[in-house]
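1st attempt posting a full record on here, be nice pls
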Amino acid sequence: MRIRLLNFFKKVFSLHQHNWQLVSKTISEPRNLPSPFPPNLSKAFLDKAIFGFTTYIWECEGCGEIKIKECLGVEITTLEDVLDRVDIYGNQPIVKGEKEYVVILKPSNSQPNVLNKIPIRRINEN
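the predicted structure (as tokens):
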């Protein structure tokens, strides 16, 4: 009995390099909340409701320890989803490794171009 208990403590409390494996990922999509917001909602709840959130659960293969990470926002895996978000929310930043990209909505020809309406004046250098 004593040896089994000792082996249990060695296994549970041993210092080792964790080998984390993703065992679960849950996504909560953004919600459209009524306006005005109810006054008793916390900022954290509003952020999660407006932007959605993703929960990741990892488990160490060696010791079975569980690690849970919750991230604001949701994973977008298709171009169609990115374009839908640009239509709804405007410019969308995308970070891939060390590079950062921005997907923007180009104004159509039917929309007035503000730059074409700015008067240009020449300054005489005399």
